[in-house]
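S1.2 Input.
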Amino acid sequence: FPEPEAALALFMHAAPRRLKVEGSFGPEVSQVGRSILAGCTSSTSFARCTLRGPLLESAHPAVQLGIHVDDVSQTSIMSRASDVKVSLLDSGQRFVGAVTAKGLAMSAKSVVIASVPGLASEIARAFGRMGISVRAEVTAEDLGVGVRIGRRTSAVIGKRLKKGLCRASRIALLRKAAPKASKLFATGARP
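S1.3 Output.
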């Protein structure tokens, strides 16, 4: 990031915001809290930068780390389930500690999935004993696409398509009243 562009992007990101609809502006929102500006590539870079430190602090030789904007994944593939559990608990606990130290919060959507029956539940219970809320699931959404131990599931994709169709019909109604609302199709209706 060149310094002038980074400074401008940070000022823009931290500035008070207003919602604009059909040329009318809503009240100023001065307490934006934890959010990113939709469509702003600098905002997504800031989110990745914010999580990079905690992710590196949680590094474990047996855990593959991944990040996309503000979604983090930790994957361990080992021959013994007990080793997977130990490596993920170690890495996960260090990640949560580092994130919390930065004043951030863990998502209530955090899940663990496993190929060995019962392992996900074991790991979730162990995290619970550490005070970390994680749900054991059979599938998980990875960047909005359902995943079941490395395979994509059609259930999540179907749900996203259904939501997109509902949004599209609402946007079509809005468009009748305000033609400029058609811009919403690009960001609000496509799953």
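S1.4 Remarks. Strands lie at 20-21, 24-25, 64-68, 71-75, 111-112, 135-136, 140-142, 145-148, 151-152.
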